[in-house]
Amino acid sequence: MNGGNFMSYVIGIDGGGTKTEAVLSDETGQVYARVLAGPSNLNSGSRESIEGTFLKIFSEIKNQQPELFQHIDYCFAGLSGTENHVNKEFIEALFKRLVGGQFPYLIEHDAVNALYSGTFGEPGIVQIAGTGSIGFGIDQHLNKKRVGGWGYLIGDEGSGYAIGRDALQVIFQHYDRNQKETILANLIGKYFEISGDLKDIVPTIYQAESPRNHISALSKVVFEAFDMGDTDAKSILQRAAKDLSKSIEMILEHFPLSNKQVVLVGGLFNRNDVILPMLEHFLNEECELILPKVEPVIGSVIAALQQINQKYIPLQK
């Protein structure tokens, strides 16, 4: 809180490899300024592009709310790629140059935003499963534990990519046994618009600009095959759910939580009617599986408020 101002004003930033969103908000979640900019992950963009992202964010927030910008209590930036110390040091130096002395700030992993989008600042676990996957937990002492998130060449178990990769492996195992006619194989052939031999998919994937995105997109096809009763699709999704349950349980082994809230974030959970029952089946721990209640950038607002000992008290709608 600043001076005679009874409200706390914070900036929350949620950043990734393709886009970064920032808001100026108060403890009720009311948004006074919002900016959408480019990438903020050095693993995906150049230093010049990252600098341009944050220059745009702070200048546009100031332009939208010049008076409130003078009363910022805190800024929290949850950014992917900041687990790399070199990346984090670059971002911290950039913030110091752009807003140093104007207000305090903290840079953390974007998983914090995702977690707080479901727990509203309370301890818990977030399991992210989109193109990639990562598990992340914060306990009551603000200790942090990460599991996975090592990228598709090393890990990403239970992710959209893993599901798509497993689907391709299965259909070509059937192909090698001359068992080409399966629901999953036919749907994947249609997805790639292959009218001839199934093996024609192979060059399409290997010559693609981003084979990873091509493969992860197949997760939707796997769900479609599951809906049609394909047993391979069911096995693939069960394997993904089992891998995600292992990620959650590894975090719980590191620090037991009295309130075992697990926030499920990412495109995979758009089909929570399928994944949630499977996840509940494989989890040995009693957990409360929840979906996000607010967007990730509001999760970063909650993290900023936490740094100034303020609670997030959303307005009743």
TrEMBL record:
Residues 11-303 form the ATPase BadF/BadG/BcrA/BcrD type domain. InterPro entries: ATPase_BadF, ATPase_NBD, Euk-type_GlcNAc_Kinase. This is ATPase BadF/BadG/BcrA/BcrD type domain-containing protein. It comes from Allobacillus salarius.
